[in-house]
Structure formats: C-alpha cells, structure tokens
Fold this protein.
Amino acid sequence: MAEHATNRPFLIGVAGGSSSGKTTISERLVELTGEEHLSRIELDSYYLDRTDQPWEARAKANYDHPDAFDWPLLNGHLATLANGESVEVPIYDYADHNRSGETRTVQPKKIVVVDGILVLWDRALRERFDLKIFVDTAPDIRFIRRLTRDVADRGRTVESVIDQYLETVRPAHERFIEPSKRHADVIIPEGGLNRPALEVLLARVRELTV
C-alpha cells in the first residue's frame, strides 16, 4: 500500500475482469460518499489515441491488452491530482474506437477512485494507490454481463461479442488481469453484490471524509 500524505487525495484502485462489478463498486462509493468528496476516473478513458488508424483497424485492435492504454498520460494525471491540481481526462467514443476529442475536468478531491481491468497491472500506477482492490467474479457471470451490456448499450451483435471474448477478452484475463490480483490489498468476491464487503469498504472511505 502506498504511503499517504494527508495533504493529497487518497487514491483507490479498483481492478478486476471485464464486467466483474468494478463500476458498481465505484459508483456506489460516489453515491454514498458524495461527489463533493470523491472523484472517479475510468481506465477506459485512457485508451490510446488511434486517429492515425482507419476505423477497420481500430475495430480489430485488442483493447484488453496492456498495450492498448496510455499509461504515461494516466500516471501523469494521477501525479497532477496528487499535487492538488485538476486534470482533463479524455472522453472515449466506443462506437468510433477512438478518443472523442472532448475531455472532462477531474478535481483533486479527498478521494480519487480509478477503476479498470488493468489498474493493478502497471507497476508505476499501482504504486500510487493507497488502497488496491480486486473484484473477483466468476467467469460465466462476467461473460453474461458483458454480452448483455455490449448488445444493449454499444450496439454490438451477439456473434461479435462472443468472438471478441474468445479471441482477446478471455486470453487477456488469464494472462494479465487474473495475475494482477496478487497485488491487491483487498479482494472482493462477487463485486457490488457482496454487500458486507462493500459496507466495510464504505466505512473506511467515510473515515477519510470526516
């Protein structure tokens, strides 16, 4: 766990497989802690800028591999937040498979939560966190959630979701995401459905806002 100075934000990293429940936990923390106390950053915002690639190439890229992310930018943003300054986080366009060109301002509040599949993979990043969480959810549950989300919210076909899962999502999970669990301070089975674990986490976070 990183050494924390009282004059900088308390940084929390929430990792886990695709559709494991990371977002549920992060959103619950925001809801119960209050937006005035907590800022949230999604790792997906830091997919590389692929403006120089045609849409077809962007669509075929492996977005579950560590090479898909702009680690220097994310690490730089967390360093800036730790220094008490705001940052402009990219807004990602899933339909275009690229950054939208727009950004959103994230303030250095008392708590900053960063969630994403690989936030415990990058060593420089995980060493910034004061608390590292891994959401551990069964593969079949994660796949069903991902299938439902991508078809309903991202306009994907069932076939394309299954193909992507078999070709990149599952292999990346086994190679990169699951091994990163050993770096976690806390492992939460079943994600946001694990109410007792979530209550313990919330109690710790509330201490920081007093």
Notes: The beta strands are 10-16, 38-42, 87-93, 98-106, 111-115, 131-136, 186-189. The chain has a mean pLDDT of 90. Residues 10-209 form a domain with the Rossmann fold fold (CATH 3.40.50.300). The two ends are 22 Å apart (CA to CA).
